[in-house]
Design a protein that fits this description.
The structure holds two protein chains of two kinds. Chain A has six domains: 52 residues, Ribosomal Protein L24e, Chain: T, CATH 2.30.170; 89 residues, Alpha-Beta Plaits (2-Layer Sandwich), CATH 3.30.70; 144 residues; 72 residues, Calcium-transporting ATPase, cytoplasmic transduction domain A (Distorted Sandwich); 135 residues, HAD superfamily/HAD-like (Rossmann fold), CATH 3.40.50; 113 residues, Calcium-transporting ATPase, cytoplasmic domain N (3-Layer(aba) Sandwich), CATH 3.40.1110. In chain A, strand 1 and strand 2 form a beta hairpin. Chain A contains 26 helices and 31 strands. Chain B has one domain. In chain B, 78% of the residues lie in helices and 0% in strands. Chain B is mainly alpha-helical. Chain B starts with a helix and ends in a 6-residue tail after the last helix. Chain B is built from three helices and no strands. The chains are: A alpha+beta, B mainly alpha. Chains A and B meet through helix 4, strand 7, helix 6 and helix 7 of A and helix 1, helix 2 and helix 3 of B.
């Protein structure tokens, strides 16, 4: 059967299943009504050049949205998201869903520009965020959202005041400061080359002075503007009585700068403006990278918050009304409609229904709730209308507490990093003390202020860039590239070090140890079984169990006829039924079969799927989540390194235990909510462990952000990948072992390098203190020591991994 | 090489470089680099239509301001 692309979204589908339309002598094919609608709309608006710009990019099929738009015009919504300008214009920040390429951005902007009453729009392609300014006299917000939906995208608001504004501002600020720093450094370097040449071959005093002044002019803005961040850090450090890296950087830079001015004015000795700018620029770039990673996490956080409703249906004295979530108090009676997201925790009072709790537990199977059961915010009501009593208010409900905690952990530095800062703080104070002592000693000894200052500065300058400077980054850089070649992405260099020190690995079950999707492990087929019918039936549902059945049929049967079913009905949490050539066919779980009058009894601790035509049972399938290949081997190797392995899961105890047993994990924690997982990680911390956590879902995010090192699977939820420190692109469990091995090897190289540079410092600093260091010796010994460090780091590349 | 030549060369080149830097900083400040991908796309899809679009948006803004002036109602 020929597969052809949909004219709008360009995804490939079977020709027979598609909607065809004749236009201008050509036959157009569409995969769904939504795509067809969007295509025609674009044609009539004269925006068809969209498809030219699109190129080969495929889109999501356009979904006809029918969510209620009225909520966008409600007062509570407006108060939360809309800002009113002085001139009566209104502004909102939106996240636009479904943007895949620059053509999508173009289309959205174009359509919004053409809409009357919209004064300004700008859409950011990198994070799909848009700012829209409109005239409330001409157009309503709901109409704007509708316009976006009509071309096949969806938009929901977010509150930029939360985090984003601040993050963007710091990012821009750092960027400008780096630009000035790089500009100054580059220009000073080529002047400095002339200086060095002059030092060795001789140079006229006049030329030297001119070069000195030029360097001074270039170095001043770098020190005062780019270096400002360090002065601020050092000042706060001083206020809190802490000596930190900032203190060393700023004092080194300031002293070198002041001395250089002195040398320039008195025309004696050498200037060190090049060291001033280099210290500042390099350390600044490192800080900037940290700021960048924070910004990304903020972007995804907004996506979660934006999709939560702002109003809920409350029932008071039998009158329904929409109430803003902030006004809900404990004890209020609320109503849930199918498809609604729960924002407030509560207990079901009337009715029953199934809930999708996948964002909380990671398990894909819907959970059935009835009177007296607790429902949690973040879950989605799937199939029925029910009423429940609020047991918490909005700000204490689970979902908002997760987001709140995440916000905190993003802005808070991990424990290990703080420790590293502390150590470099000690180092900095010692060097500063030595420099001060040197100054005092030399001044008393020689009574020459100049000589004392030169020697003291040479101590600071020599110690500052080299000791902690090159030793760590060089080997971590090599370590990161070795890891990247094995599709393990370390987001930051320091994570290698932390991971090497870790002694506890916490693994999530679904999606990490297992593949996260059920597959058939047992199938029993009775006479009259029609695989093509089952395939058609299972294909109508996106439920993971149905998808598992589809994969099974594709694997075991070849060349099946396409069948089109009628009257397809999907009964959430139970199954699917449809009619084919007058016969009723059904597929679903045990309860569904029994309810439909087909008597089956079967017991299994795996998920079950039955298939029946009319009253005849034709197939029984047992499905379970399969364990990833080599998971047991990888865990064994990790254990052999002396690392404790535990499993955390939202699944029930029985299945958790059986998975744990087959991969060799002894310690299992089951039935955990996201907050429980995070609390467990805290417990491990309290016991003195350094924790590595691997997970993939939104439900793991909180625990991931709490752990010292978070490993995410490459196909996991965006938010999980963003809060994580390491991403495994190939999703193999062996990669966790490899990540451990590589980080341990790297850490060894770091220690070797540090030992060497410490040795270098213990020799060079006393020499500097005694005044033996002149620029020539310093330059030679510095480059020599750097070479040693680089060569030692390169040895990491020769690492051998077990089983390779 | 005389000192004056060196001063002249250094001065002019640094000045030119500084002008470039200032332009870049202004660009960052006014948000022209906020979206890296769009920055490149602007070069790829540059055409008259976009220019017309921008002009249209400008006119819309002006029209609104004018309307507001015409219907200005002082607060009571």
């Amino acid at each position: 059967m020929a597969k052809i692309p949909c004219t709008h979204c360009q995804l490939q589908f079977d020709e027979e299943m598609m909607i065809t339309e004749e236009a201008q002598g050509k036959t157009l094919h569409f995969c769904c009504k939504g795509c067809q609608g969007v295509y025609n709309l674009l044609q009539s608006e004269g925006l068809d050049s969209f498809y030219e710009k699109l190129g080969d990019t495929t889109l999501q099929p356009a979904v006809t949205q029918n969510s209620d738009l009225d909520k966008f015009d409600l007062e509570g919504f407006e108060k939360k998201y809309v800002t009113l300008h002085e001139d009566g214009l209104k502004e909102i920040n939106l996240i636009i869903e479904g943007i895949h390429c620059s053509a999508c951005v173009w289309l959205n902007e174009k359509v919004l520009h053409k809409t009357d009453g919209i004064i300004e729009t700008s859409i950011n392609y990198s994070n799909n965020k848009a700012k829209v300014i409109w005239d409330p006299d001409i157009i309503k917000l709901s109409k704007i959202i509708q316009t976006i939906q009509s071309i096949g995208y969806n938009a929901y608001p977010y509150d930029p005041k939360l985090q984003e504004e601040r993050a963007v501002k710091t990012r821009k600020d750092y960027y400008s400061r780096i630009l000035v720093g790089v500009f100054g450094t580059m220009n000073i370097m080529w002047i400095a080359i002339a200086q060095y040449a002059g030092y060795f071959t001789g140079m006229e005093r006049e030329s030297k002075d001119i070069l000195n002044v030029a360097e001074f002019i270039l170095a001043t803005p770098v020190l005062l503007y780019s270096g400002w961040i360090f002065f601020k850090g050092a000042y706060y450090g001083y206020k809190n009585r802490v000596v930190n890296m900032d203190t060393l950087v700023s004092s080194g830079a300031i002293f070198a700068y002041l001395y250089s001015i002195y040398a320039m004015v008195t025309q004696t000795g050498e200037v060190y403006f090049d060291s001033v700018v280099m210290i500042i620029t390099f350390v600044l770039v490192g800080k900037y990278l940290e700021v960048l990673s924070k910004k990304q996490a903020v972007d995804t956080l907004d996506t979660i918050m934006g999709s939560t409703p702002t109003e809920v249906t409350a029932i008071k004295d039998n009158v329904k009304s929409l109430v803003s979530v902030e006004n809900i108090v404990k004890g209020d009676l609320l109503e849930l409609k199918p498809g609604e997201k729960v924002v407030i925790d509560g207990i079901v009072k009337f009715g029953q229904g199934s809930f999708d709790e996948s964002s909380l537990t990671g398990e894909n199977e819907p959970v059935f709730k009835q009177e007296g059961d607790e429902i949690l915010s973040g879950s989605i009501c799937l199939d029925s209308v029910l009423r429940y009593e609020a047991t918490k208010d909005a700000s204490n409900s689970l979902l908002s507490s997760i987001v709140k905690l995440l916000e905190e952990s993003i802005t808070k530095k991990p424990r290990i990093e703080q420790l590293a800062n502390q150590i470099s703080g000690y180092f900095s104070s010692v060097i500063l003390l030595i420099a001060i002592a040197t100054f005092a000693g030399w001044y008393l000894y020689s009574h020459s202020f100049e000589q004392a200052l030169i020697t003291a500065i040479s101590v600071v300058v020599i110690a500052c860039p080299c000791a902690l400077g090159l030793a760590t980054p060089m080997s971590t850089l090599v370590g990161i590239s070795v890891a990247a070649k094995r599709s393990i992405l370390f987001k930051e260099a320091t994570f290698l070090e932390t991971m090497a020190k870790s002694d506890l690995l916490a693994l999530d079950k679904t999606g990490t140890i297992t593949e996260g999707r059920p597959s058939v492990i047992n199938a029993e087929i009775f006479e009259g079984f029609e695989p093509s019918m089952l395939l058609a039936l299972a294909n109508t549902s996106n439920h993971p169990i149905s998808q598992g059945i589809v994969r099974y049929i594709h694997d075991h049967y070849e060349k099946l006829d396409e069948i089109s079913l009628e009257n397809i009905k999907s009964i959430e949490a139970k199954g699917i039924e449809a009619v084919y050539t007058g016969k009723k066919i059904r597929g679903g779980n045990l309860a569904f079969m029994n309810e439909s009058g087909i008597n089956v009894s079967f017991d299994s601790h795996h998920s079950l799927f039955f298939f029946a035509i009319e009253d005849q049972l034709l197939g029984r399938f047992e499905l379970t989540d399969t364990i990833r290949q080599n998971a047991d081997k990888a865990i064994e190797q990790i254990k052999a390194m002396g690392i404790k392995v535990v499993m955390l899961t939202g699944d029930h105890e029985q299945s958790a235990k059986s998975v744990a047993q087959s991969v060799g994990i002894d310690e299992v924690y089951a039935k955990l909510l996201p907050t429980d997982k995070a609390a467990l990680i805290d417990d491990f911390h309290a016991q003195g462990h350094i924790v590595v956590m691997a997970g993939d879902g939104i439900n793991d995010t909180l625990a991931l952000s709490k752990s010292d090192i978070a490993i995410a699977m490459g196909s996991g939820a965006d938010i999980a990948i963003n809060v994580s420190d390491v991403v495994l692109m190939d999703e193999k469990p062996e990669s966790i072992y490899e990540a451990y091995a590589i980080s341990k090897r790297t850490f060894r190289a770091v220690k070797e390098n540090l030992a060497f540079s410490l040795l270098y410092n213990t020799i060079s600093v006393p020499l500097a203190v005694l005044g033996f260091v002149n620029p020539l010796v310093a330059a030679l010994s510095m480059s020599l020591s750097s070479l040693v460090v680089v060569a030692n780091s390169m040895r990491i590349k020769m690492i051998r991994l077990k089983g390779k | 090489m005389s000192g004056n030549t060196i001063i002249l060369m250094l001065g002019i080149s640094t000045l030119l470089g500084a002008l470039g830097l200032i332009a870049l900083l202004w660009g960052v400040k006014t948000g022209q680099f906020d979206d890296q991908s769009k920055f490149i796309d602007a070069a790829r899809y540059d055409n008259v239509e976009d220019l017309r679009d921008a002009a249209m948006m400008d006119e819309k803004k002006k029209a609104r301001e004018k309307k507001k002036k015409d219907h200005y109602m002082p607060a009571d």
